[in-house]
Amino acid sequence: MLSVLIETLNDEEGLARTLASLIGGAVEGVVRDVLVCDTGSTDQTHRVAEHAGCHYVSGGIAAGIRQAKGDWLLLLEPGARLGEGWIDEVVAHTAKQTMAARFSRARGSRAPFLSRVFAGNRALAEGLVISKRQAAALSKNARSAEAIARGLATRRLHAEIWVAPRK
């Protein structure tokens, strides 16, 4: 079972797009719970989370990790959308692996080489599948989901993600 954590700040539209891509996982019984980890939003983020049946957690990613019920966590940016086939890939990975994993960028979501070089990489852009135990240990020194994902050795999943647009 998988807990999905989405750290957000004033991105109700992006949150709605991301939640829509998780419906299949909830129907299949793979997604146990979805936690929206808010870092001080002043828009309607809490209403989007509540209407979608998510747990709304204030206090950031560390609080969300503590409340997550799954043994594995899926960390996503608001606005990211998972492509078809993500459910089978995540289930297969969590059944046999102990290391973290990231999704592959969808072809239409890949930025040109030079813009990737000059814009810098967001560590959470490809999402992150990580064990709750590892995430809890990393969250002691990290103040955000991005900091947890940065510098982490991961495997590449054969499922695609449409990366959230830059703000």
Describe, in short, the structure shown:
By secondary structure, this protein is an alpha/beta fold.
Layout of SSEs?
Blueprint: E1 2-8, H1 12-21, H2 23-28, E2 31-38, H3 45-51, E3 55-58, H4 61-67, E4 72-76, E5 81-82, H5 86-96, E6 100-105, H6 113-119, E7 128-131, H7 132-139, H8 145-149, E8 154-162
Parallel strand pairs: 1-2, 1-4, 2-3, 6-8
Antiparallel strand pairs: 4-7, 5-8
Keyphrases for this structure?
alpha/beta; 3-stranded mixed β-sheet; 8 helices; single chain; 167 residues
Structural commentary:
This protein has 167 residues and is an alpha/beta fold. The chain is 37% helix and 27% strand. The chain is built from 8 helices and 8 strands. It has helices at 12-21, 23-28, 45-51, 61-67, 86-96, 113-119, 132-139, 145-149; strands at residues 2-8, 31-38, 55-58, 72-76, 81-82, 100-105, 128-131, 154-162. The strands form 2 sheets. The chain has a 5-stranded mixed β-sheet, sandwiched between helices. Helix 1 packs parallel to helix 3 and helix 4 (61-67) packs antiparallel against helix 7. The N and C termini lie far apart (31 Å). The model has no long low-confidence stretch (mean pLDDT 91).
